[in-house]
Amino acid sequence: MRAAVVTALTGPDAVEVRHVPEPEPAPGQVLVDVHAAGVVFPDVLQTRGEYQLRPPLPFVPGWEVSGVVRADAGGFRTGDRVAALPTLGGFAETVAVDAAMVFPLPDTVSLDAAAAVPLNHLTMHFAFSRRARLQRGETVLVHGAAGGLGGAACRLAAVAGARVVAVVSSPARGAVARACGAHEVVPADGFLEEVRRLTGGRGVDVVVDPVGGDRAPDSLRALAPEGRLLVLGFTGGAIPTVGVDRLLLSNTTVVGAASAEFWRAEPDLPRQHWSELLPLLESGVVDPPIGAVHPLEETARAIRELDERRAVGRVLVRVRER
What average pLDDT score do residues 271-279 get? Predict the structure, then answer.
């Protein structure tokens, strides 16, 4: 089969399309013929060996896919349309996935859209419900709001009855954030002042931060008393430090939300959360904007779009047509 392979830990340009053996599913795995794969920031990190999961070279990256079940397994039947989280191996014509990480799709959801859903939406569902304990009527500030994770955060926070303030770097990204459910949009430069203006000086209840870097100090300052800063990653490159005196003075909290690590300890949780997302998928509320779709041969280019911060909306690799 064809697959996009990381051949060296030198970045996206080291990804090559090669012929590799088809995977042999282990007991408890489902074999999925891949239609499309979503490109996510961990793919970027893995091309440089900068992610926690460091498989030996060469390896096939790819965290989230949509496709069709090859053979009966794990409660699925041959031909079932599914989304899945393989963590590795998604940029290939076929992938073997643990059954707990394979999810049924409503007939109304296209396979392209399905490839853009599972990782970001399950992560944000976990982050809001389990880590931040988001409540109706609260205000949520979302960094990177036009990206995959940020867009999912805007969408799910709005559905939960929160007021959503999106932080973006351009008007085009602001339009994407509004399409994802943001009620207000503020520029990345000077976001703290805008947040204070919009909240009458009170601040926000939850900050969603997949960016890190130099935004962290002002994110803490943007919190209302008893507010929560959700740490989801460091796409800005730098891992910030936190002055704990500020947490004490303002009764605020910094909360980690590492979904993949949590799922390994509680493997039934993703299926449970997917069942809670299904009504939103069926109704069309969860419908991520697709910014670009590349053929498998352009996987390196697709990953580079995220690496160079050029993506507006989700980036997909279409592996095969139905």
Answer: 95
